[in-house]
Amino acid sequence: MTQERFEEMVEQYGRLVFTVCNQLVGDAGQAEDLAQETFLSAWLHADRCPEGAEKAWLCRIAANKAKDCLKSAYRRRVAAAGGPGDWLEGQACAEEVSPEDAVASQETLRTVRGGIEGLRAPYKEVSALFFLENYSVAEIAQLLGRPHKTINTQLYRAKSMLRGQLAAQVA
């Protein structure tokens, strides 16, 4: 694989690799590090890339990097050292958000994320990209290799399912 081709792959699949990592580890900063590790590993082992299957190959490397990260002893130690209020303090200081707003937005995100996790394929994947990662319909269609109309239909159905889930939780 040439350096130019590899740079094209990084441009083309960079956001997808980040999304895969972020969905698995749930931390944007760590997902960025894992995406970089993914591309480093891909560059070092470029000779193993099956022709025409670059997207799937990169996604598999990213998923494996994220899973390894989740299993690491370092991550377990760091997570155990932090208290439940650490995230809230960081949010309030970094963005000058009131504690009430930070808790409300965190709770809303947790509710939406939980609802999306309860969806079945393909609605789960499309919803995560749209609602959590803020991809446009056009970007999702390109990433997943599906027509725009299909993505719109899947989002419409996912919204309906999410509304049903939320209505059941409120009732």
Cα-atom radius of gyration: 18 Å
How would you state the average pLDDT, rounded?
A: 79
Helix content: over 70%
Oligomer: single chain
Would you mind describing this structure in some detail?
Helices cover 80% and strands 0% of the residues. The chain is an all-alpha fold and 171 residues long. The radius of gyration is 18 Å and the shape is globular.
Secondary structure: elements and pairs:
Blueprint: H1 3-25, H2 28-44, H3 54-71, H4 73-81, H5 86-95, H6 99-117, H7 123-132, H8 137-144, H9 148-170
What brief labels describe this structure?
mainly alpha, 171 residues, sigma factor activity, RNA_pol_sigma-70_dom, DNA-binding
Summarize the structure.
It comes from Anaerofilum hominis. This protein has helices at 3-25, 28-44, 54-71, 73-81, 86-95, 99-117, 123-132, 137-144, 148-170.
